[in-house]
């Protein structure tokens, strides 16, 4: 999806529905669309700030202004990529609210800087389990474990309105990147299927517009991943390939800056197919079985 024309509502507090407001961070990029969207959920008497975003003074000032005199009872994160959780600590210091949400990620891997996209300073006061709730006057947020994009990813359902905050698991502008070793394609597809079984009214993602036809989009995303899987199998049934060769053949005309993300997703598919006994590798060469 192409970027919408400027001006974007960066730093502005937008009311989306009675219990939900949104503030866009100034961190637009090829991976974040127009930026990370932080959500303020609740009322003056009790408010959760979801995905506070990057530790950026301009964004923190915008969040402080949007909070105003409201009582912040929790700061929650869907996951700990650097565009989502670094503002949690300074916002907690500012408001006195605890950081409650996803757990921290610890990556055990021989890959160089496998933890680079993550906020390694993230320290939650309480980690929400699947199905556990945050609540305030007139609202309840239920945590839904949705691993795949990251192992610690949570979505949050606003029970009173039928809204689901989907973080990066389902976005309004692009499919998610699934980057091993922490990202896992089998988990990602299982999490998509879990959301497909739900009846949420609307999705509010961390990037891109609200999703008003959730089931239709999720069904399309599952279909897209299965299509990629079939594409990989066709290539490997014709000949063995290195990962880089496969990406070149599969993503013709792709923006050069997005090639690393495409490579990670293809690798995630290959690892899933390997686990299922459909492909094998010898060194850097992948082959169909």
Concise description?
28% of the residues lie in helices and 23% in strands.
Would you count the extended β strands for me?
A: 15
The CATH class of the largest domain turns out to be Alpha Beta
Low-confidence spans: none
Label the overall shape: elongated
| Mean pLDDT value | 95
Q: Helical stretch count?
A: 6
CATH superfamily of the largest domain: Ribonuclease Z/Hydroxyacylglutathione hydrolase-like
CATH architecture classification name of the largest domain? 4-Layer Sandwich
- The whole-angstrom Rg is 19 Å
Proportion of beta-strand residues: 15-25%
Q: What is the fold named in CATH at topology level of the largest domain?
A: Metallo-beta-lactamase, Chain A
Structural class: alpha+beta
The largest sheet, given as strand count, sense and whether it forms a barrel, is: 5 strands, mixed
The order of strands across the largest sheet is: 1-2-3-4-5
State the end-to-end distance: 36 Å
Count structural domains.
2
Helix fraction? 25-40%
Describe the overall structure.
Strand 9 (139-145) and strand 10 (154-158) form a beta hairpin. The mean pLDDT is 95. 28% of the residues lie in helices and 23% in strands. It has 289 residues and is of the alpha+beta class. The two termini are 36 Å apart. The radius of gyration is 19 Å and the shape is elongated. GO terms for molecular function: hydrolase activity.
Secondary structure layout plus pairing:
Layout (H helix, E strand, L loop, with lengths): L12 E5 L2 E5 L12 E7 L2 E5 L6 H11 L4 E5 L11 H8 L4 E2 L24 E2 L5 E4 L2 E7 L8 E5 L4 E5 L17 H12 L5 E4 L8 H25 L2 E2 H8 L8 H17 L3 E4 L2 E4 L1
Parallel strand pairs: 4-5, 6-7, 11-12
Antiparallel strand pairs: 1-2, 2-3, 3-4, 8-9, 9-10, 10-11, 13-15, 14-15
Keywords: Hydrolase
GO molecular function: hydrolase activity
Organism: Altericroceibacterium spongiae
């Amino acid at each position: 999806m192409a970027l919408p024309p400027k001006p974007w509502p960066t730093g502005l507090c937008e009311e989306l529905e009675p219990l939900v407001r949104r503030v866009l961070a100034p961190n637009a990029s090829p991976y974040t669309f127009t930026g990370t969207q932080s959500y303020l959920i609740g009322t003056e008497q009790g408010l959760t700030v979801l995905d506070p975003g990057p530790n950026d003074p301009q964004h923190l000032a915008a969040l402080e202004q949007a909070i105003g005199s409201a009582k912040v009872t929790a700061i929650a994160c869907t996951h700990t990529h650097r565009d989502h959780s670094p503002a949690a600590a300074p916002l907690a210091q500012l408001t006195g609210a605890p950081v409650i949400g996803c757990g921290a990620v610890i990556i055990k891997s021989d890959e160089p800087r496998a933890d680079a996209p993550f906020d390694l300073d993230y320290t939650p006061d309480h980690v929400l389990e699947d199905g556990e709730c945050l609540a305030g006057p007139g609202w309840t947020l239920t945590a839904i474990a949705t691993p795949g994009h990251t192992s610690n990813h949570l979505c949050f359902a606003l029970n009173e309105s039928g809204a689901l905050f989907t973080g990066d698991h389902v976005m309004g502008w692009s499919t998610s990147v699934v980057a091993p070793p922490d990202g896992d394609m089998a988990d990602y597809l299982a999490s998509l299927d879990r959301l497909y079984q739900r009846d949420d009214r609307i999705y509010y993602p961390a990037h891109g517009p609200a999703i008003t036809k959730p089931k239709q989009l999720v069904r399309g995303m599952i279909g897209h991943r299965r299509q990629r899987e079939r594409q990989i199998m066709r290539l490997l049934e014709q000949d063995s390939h290195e990962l880089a060769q496969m990406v070149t053949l599969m993503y013709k005309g792709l923006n050069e800056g997005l090639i690393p993300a495409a490579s990670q997703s293809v690798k995630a598919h290959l690892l899933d197919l390997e686990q299922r006994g459909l492909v094998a590798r010898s060194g850097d060469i992948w082959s169909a079985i």
